[in-house]
Amino acid sequence: MTFYVEVADVEAALATIESKGGQKAFGPHPVPTGAIIAGFTDPEGNLVGLVQQPVKQ
Fold it and tell me: Choosing a second label site near 33 at 20 to 30 A (CA), which of 1, 5, 52, 55?
């Protein structure tokens, strides 16, 4: 099972995660809803997803 954490900016979150020892696993990728998803592994190897909601216009 993978759970997703909502963040304001996927790219910025991945940069912070990588600076603290995490590793990007996939993404960022747009999905049909307009959201952007990505995933990373923490230093223990656990996969966690990130989701950035689409900008409301």
Answer: 1
- Type of residue numbered 42: D
SS3 39: strand
Question: Which tens digits make up the pLDDT trace of 17-56?
Answer: 999 999 999 999 999 999 999 999 999 999 999 999 998 7
CA neighbours closer than 13 Å in the CB half-sphere of residue 20: 10
- What's the CA angle centered on 25, arms 24 and 31, to 5 degrees? 105
| Sign of CA pseudo-dihedral 53, 31, 21, 12 | negative
